[in-house]
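Incident log, structure service

09:12 report received: a user says their structure output differs between two submissions of the same chain.
09:20 pulled the input from the user's history:
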Amino acid sequence: MSNQSSSLKQSLERATAEHQQNASLARGYLAQRGIEKATSDMFRLGVVRGEGPLDEQYTGRLSIPYIAANGAVVALRYRALDDTQPKYLSRSGAKPHLFGVSCLLGDAREVVITEGEIDQMTLTQIGVTAVGVPGAQAWKKAWRFLFEDFDRVICLSDGDEAGKDFGNKMAASVGAVVVELPAGEDTNSIFVKFGATELRSIIRAA
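09:34 re-ran on a clean worker, output below:
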């Protein structure tokens, strides 16, 4: 984060602010995922309208800023709002970051690691301390030090082979207790189908 040039930081902040002005275009999609407007605002979600030359290829996608503990935008990811593939895109040369890292600054003794931004936002919305990893392959060994002060680390792994691999990696890297979700499910889908109480119960039972 500290190695980013001031021009890149300004570019990311400017793009985030521009995309956030179009956030209403994603309300239908976010409502389907159970993401409330207050949560969308907290995470500064937006929609790309092709405002600048760096954004044209992401037009129509959900803009998801990665916000550091100091409030600076350090990366942007773009998610399709329909079945367009690939589902996620990042700016060329972008480095992976943990999503929701500021959540680690509180006094919670337990933290949940999940795969993806929507899952992390879901957990934050229901009051669970969590961070998101943008795919198992994005995990950096140095990140394990961020979890040393927690008494308990839980990993909610998606109900597929990729999720199982992700869970195994979190168990090996940070000693996480792995909860394998039912086949075809992820953290957000459990929340949408069964509600916050069920999701919290799954975490408590870990």
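09:41 both user submissions now match this output. Likely a transient worker issue. Closing.
09:42 reviewer note: The helical segments are 6-20, 27-32, 37-42, 117-125, 161-174, 187-194, 196-204. Residues 123 and 130 are 6 Å apart (CA to CA).
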